[in-house]
Specification:
By secondary structure, the chain is an alpha+beta fold. It has a single domain (about 5-190), classed as Substrate Binding Domain Of DNAk, Chain A, domain 1 (Sandwich), CATH 2.60.34.30. The protein has 4 helices and 12 strands.
Length: about 190
């Protein structure tokens, strides 16, 4: 896999205070396997189905606190061995997510919102993909000897190899600046 670092600016959560990370097709497969309706919000909030989706790697749930997507932030998808936000001692690290792995079955990882689960079907995934292709700009930048692929779509999506990924989440809120969230992906064998 390419050792790329992707940067997304002005990431927002649609006002639902929740972001989801994962391959939407893996979640669709989980939905079909468990005979769930298109409305995933209900079983995910009234039963153990949400926990099972997270434990299976179909998605990661990122709620408040500590994530600050509601005011806009910079998000990094990091597939390299180099941290963007520095050493852990200078940042908040959140490894207390119950299961910090995601399973990719369709060659991509998306950051999307809770509203997508209200009617989760092929049409919702198509809209998510469409929103991730609407780019205000795409450019490569270099900073401190590292190259970044910088984008600004409505929804964030990157291509990657299929398989399981361990995900470490690091956040940083510099004084007077918008929050930053770094997802550090590493392949794992399951």
């Amino acid at each position: 896999m390419e050792q790329a670092i992707y940067r997304f600016d002005e990431v927002l959560d649609d006002g639902f205070n929740v972001m989801l990370l994962g391959d939407p097709y893996t979640l669709l497969e989980f939905q079909m396997k468990n005979n769930l309706t298109e409305n995933l919000q209900t079983p995910f909030t009234t039963s153990r189905m949400g926990d099972e989706a997270v434990n299976s790697g179909a998605m990661m749930y990122l709620g408040y606190p500590p994530y600050s997507f509601s005011i806009g932030c910079t998000v990094y998808f990091n597939f390299s061995e180099n941290r963007v936000l520095g050493e852990p001692s200078f940042n908040e690290i959140f490894n207390d997510i119950p299961n910090n792995k995601i399973h990719v079955t369709n060659g991509c990882i998306c950051l999307y919102t809770w509203r997508h689960l209200a009617s989760f079907n092929q049409q919702a995934i198509d809209m998510l993909y469409k929103c991730s292709q609407q780019k205000g700009y795409v450019e490569e930048r270099e900073h401190d000897g590292r190259k970044f692929i910088v984008q600004n779509p409505v929804r964030q999506r990157v291509s990657c190899e299929n398989g399981y990924y361990n995900v470490q989440v690091v956040t940083e809120t510099p004084d007077g600046d918008l929050p930053k969230v770094e997802f550090i992906f590493s392949n794992i064998v399951v």
